[in-house]
Write a structure and sequence with these properties.
five-stranded antiparallel beta sheet; six-stranded antiparallel beta sheet; alpha+beta; single chain; about 700 residues
């Protein structure tokens, strides 16, 4: 019942600090609802109206659920939301509460909506009062006929149930509404049974109260001698008006129901677009027969339930499809990374009224790279639908491809931005790409409009790493800015790099920096193991809820108890610069001796010199020489020479009097293994030598 003629409340400005004495005299309780904080303050008289002791109420409206039935709560929420949306100054409604002793009581509320200068609702003040006597005396002083009263009660239950079903999203939500004590069972039914049609059979999804389940009816054929099968088969309701009629019509089922003292039953087909999707049965133990009015009420109820059930089934089907699509777009497995512990997690957001399209564009990825390096990606495509997920899948693939080709982190991000800009979509994406050398702990990070990463130390401390960044992917190309600065950080043994999307950080009404501080504190106090820490963070996101997805990637560099690199040195050698070439030779000689490889020093120097010379002679531009020691079961020294040419080196026959052409022959002869890798616009020629452990 909605009181649409309510007038604006006349309350003092300092109310409820000094409540109007008239309210107290008329046994009216008052409330003050702060819409910014969500707190719903009530005075002592309001506590009495709701039959709550002060210590049973914590100023949160959700706590009133112990007194306000779900169907009534749905109806009130819709009324208040509509009043705030359409600019109304006030609202009024009758609703029922369930007292401590289990009895129902009519209550009336009036609320006055106070708005700010922009028209946004900020506060609701109002009253609540017991309306039982008022409604009892409002029938023109005439006693109601018992049959009319019962019919009105049934009609009211149908209206309340229909209103509650409007908020049901899943099949289980529909069942919960129907089994609510103020739902269908208030019609006097002892038991409620519901079944859905699946592949020519009826699957039972609600079997009524404890002890009412009939063995063998979990799944039944439509041609079996059961009342639900009959109404599905004939599309006609079946009203059973006596135990004798029940026993005669359904001798297989009746013996299992005798303990429930069933005296009548109503079985209704759930029909949508002339097709049966299921059936519902109401079993009664205190009546015989159904009047024409009662039959019409139940038929109307069946039609409403059928529509809600069909909507819930569509929702679940689309949700399953969305979940499957999301999982297909994310990596099926995360590769193990030598020298690191990795954990990834994903939580899908839930948007009310999204009809199952609870899917977004958040993603993570881990890309093994040559030379003991690994690329870690976290990103978020704008939007929360299947299109966002499709764009995410394509973007994840090209990012992985660009990184695997050997491009620098800045180039990977720039090319991904151009790809998204040229894609036939209006979406953009934020992204963070971190390329970690686990042998040295050096991490190069590129940020495209994404939130900063965090690092957790081996001692448990956590800090946010502020890094320069560029525009989100897809926008940089549009605005002509493809510059992505590269930040460098050190990941010491035992430290953990944490990448996440903003769904883990942002909270409604909270500043992003506050969210980052909260997350930092949570990580500091979290478990040491990366998998346990990831579970902890995703559990917090789940408890907090919200309609945004959360993607999370944690990468922990293992401690010194595992084999580690002995070092990493790099030298830039420009063409026509003899001093740079000399410095590179000195660096190689000193490093080889310092790393305990004296026995192979001549071989290593000769091969490295040949590789550098080839790069300078046969390509244009500079060469970058990198030396590093790789730990493991066999300790190896690795030499890399990068240049800007994509042309691969080829072996030539030098001839007897030739002075060149023996370079690759020497490399192949003196090294234990060698190869060539694509690196961005050029290549890297590398080789490795097995060297003894200095110990």
């Amino acid at each position: 019942m909605v009181d649409r003629g309510v007038s604006a409340l006349s309350l003092p400005d300092d109310w409820p600090a000094h409540p109007d004495p008239i309210l107290a005299l008329n046994r009216m309780g008052s409330f003050d609802w702060d819409l910014d904080t969500g707190l719903f303050h009530m005075d002592a008289q309001a506590h009495e109206v709701f039959d709550l002791r002060p210590d049973e109420y914590d100023d949160h409206p959700e706590t009133l659920a112990v007194r306000v039935p779900r169907a009534e709560a749905y109806r009130l929420d819709g009324l208040v939301a509509q009043a705030m949306k359409d600019g109304s100054e006030n609202y009024g409604a009758y609703f029922r509460i369930r007292r401590r002793d289990g009895t129902l009581r009519w209550t009336h509320t009036q609320g006055y909506i106070r708005r700010d200068e922009t028209g946004r609702p900020r506060r609701i003040i109002g009253i609540v009062r017991d309306a039982t006597e008022e409604l009892r005396e409002s029938q023109d002083g005439r006693a109601e006929d018992a049959e009319d009263a019962a019919r009105r009660e049934q009609t009211n239950v149908v209206q309340l149930t229909t209103a509650a079903l409007a908020h049901a999203r899943t099949v289980q939500d529909v069942i919960d509404v129907l089994k609510d004590t103020h739902g269908l069972t208030h019609l006097g039914a002892t038991s409620l049974v519901v079944g859905l049609v699946e592949a020519g059979r009826i699957r039972l999804i609600a079997e009524g109260p404890a002890g009412s389940f009939v063995p063998g009816t979990d799944i039944t054929r439509i041609d079996e001698p059961y009342p639900m099968s009959e109404v599905v088969r004939t599309l006609t309701p079946r009203f059973i008006e006596s135990p004798e009629e029940f026993a005669e019509g359904y001798p297989v089922l009746w013996p299992h129901l005798t303990g429930l003292s069933i005296t009548a039953a109503a079985y209704l087909p759930l029909i949508v677009q002339a097709r049966p999707i299921g059936a519902m049965g109401l079993l009664y133990s205190d009546r015989r027969g159904f009047s024409p009015e009662e039959r019409n009420v139940l038929l109307a109820l069946g039609s409403s339930i059928a529509q809600s059930m069909q909507r819930a089934m569509f929702y679940e089907q689309e949700k399953d499809l969305a979940t499957g699509l999301q999982q297909a777009m994310l990596p099926r497995t995360i590769p193990s990374v030598r020298g690191a512990d990795v954990a990834v997690r994903y939580r899908s957001g839930s948007t009310a009224g999204s009809l199952g399209r609870d899917i977004g564009g958040d993603w993570y990825d881990l890309i093994p790279l040559p030379g003991g390096r690994v690329g870690a990606v976290i990103g978020d495509v704008q939007g929360h639908d299947t299109h966002a997920a499709a764009v995410m899948g394509q973007l994840r693939i090209v990012l992985r491809a660009y990184a695997a080709e050997g491009h620098t982190p800045a180039t990977v991000m720039a090319r991904a931005s151009v790809f998204l800009h040229e894609l036939d979509t209006d979406r953009f994406a934020t992204c963070l790409y971190a390329e970690a050398d686990l042998a040295t702990g050096v991490v190069q990070v590129v940020r495209a409009g994404h939130i900063d990463p965090l690092i957790r130390g081996a001692d448990g401390s956590c800090r946010r790493i502020s890094l320069p960044g560029g525009l989100p992917l897809g926008l940089s190309a549009e605005f002509g800015s493809l510059e992505y600065p590269v930040g460098t950080l050190e990941l010491d043994p035992g430290n953990t790099l944490l990448l996440c999307t903003d769904g883990l950080v942002e909270q409604p009404g909270a500043d992003l920096d506050d969210g980052m501080r909260t997350l930092t504190a949570l990580i500091t106090g979290g478990p040491d193991d990366v998998r346990d820490l990831a579970d902890c963070l995703i559990d917090v996101a789940e408890e907090r809820g919200g309609d945004d997805d959360v993607a999370l990637l944690l990468l922990r560099r293992r401690g010194l108890d595992t084999p580690q690199s002995g070092g990493r040195l790099q030298q830039h050698v420009a063409p026509g610069d003899p001093e740079a070439l000399t410095d590179a030779r000195h660096m190689i000689r000193a490093a080889v001796r310092a790393w305990g490889a004296r026995d192979r020093a001549d071989e290593i120097e000769l091969v490295a010199d040949e590789m550098i010379t080839n790069a300078l002679m046969h390509t244009e531009g500079s060469a970058i020489v990198t030396l590093r020691v790789l730990g493991g079961s066999d300790r190896r020294l690795r030499v890399e020479v990068e240049d800007s040419s994509s042309a691969l080196p080829r072996r030539r026959e030098a001839g007897e009097s030739g002075v060149s052409g023996r370079g690759l022959l020497l490399v192949d002869l003196l090294t234990d293994v060698w190869g060539v890798e694509a690196r961005g616009g050029g290549k890297c020629v590398w080789c490795e030598f097995v060297v003894p452990d200095p110990d």
